[in-house]
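Good morning,

Attaching, inline, the backbone tokens for the sequence recovery test we're adding to the shared suite. The designed sequence is right after.
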């Protein structure tokens, strides 16, 4: 089952070049997660890093980047996945809110595919099961789907399914607006989600 959502800009940030950002998530046949992000707008007004070799890189969120935060429901630990249109990626492991673990497992890179036209940018990312937070069989996952968009001016806008009050904060528990079971997805924030 696939669920689609519109990411919303943070009220304190905006991006005139972007008309909208959609996100989809589903389970893969082997128990991984597949994400698709679709940005629509005037791409000439958005800084999109050039395609490079798919390597791990830090600080991708300082430029145009799509993100997914994945936690086991009821647990404090979570992982942050960054997917850049350059093909670069990062994964960070947290034991609690913004409390980084020593290091996340870096055994397998996510599989990234990037496509663009004059007015759209689409990024697909597949995360293998071993990249997901450890969970008992049948555990439910909570996800935050997000994006950081850099305009040609250098200004950043922050997009998410749900924004907590205050400054943009994708790590905040309120940002984890989607709940997924082992083979299905259940909407937590029904106003943001559209079932496909």
């Amino acid at each position: 089952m696939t669920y689609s959502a519109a990411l919303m800009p943070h009220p304190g940030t905006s991006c005139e070049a972007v008309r909208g950002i959609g996100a989809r998530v589903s389970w893969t046949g082997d128990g991984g997660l597949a994400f698709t992000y679709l940005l629509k707008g005037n791409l000439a007004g958005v800084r999109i890093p050039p395609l490079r070799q798919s390597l791990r890189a830090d600080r991708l969120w300082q430029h145009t980047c799509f993100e997914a935060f994945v936690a086991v429901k009821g647990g404090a630990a979570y992982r942050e996945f960054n997917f850049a249109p350059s093909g670069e990626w990062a994964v960070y492991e947290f034991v609690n809110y913004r409390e980084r673990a020593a290091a996340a497992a870096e055994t397998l890179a996510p599989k990234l595919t990037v496509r663009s036209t004059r007015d759209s940018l689409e990024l697909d990312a597949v995360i293998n099961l071993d990249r997901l937070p450890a969970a008992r069989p049948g555990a439910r996952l909570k996800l935050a789907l997000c994006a950081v968009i850099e305009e040609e001016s250098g200004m950043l806008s922050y997009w998410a399914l749900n924004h907590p009050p205050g400054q943009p904060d994708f790590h905040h528990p309120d940002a984890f607006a989607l709940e997924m079971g082992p083979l299905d997805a259940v909407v937590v924030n029904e106003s943001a989600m559209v079932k496909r």
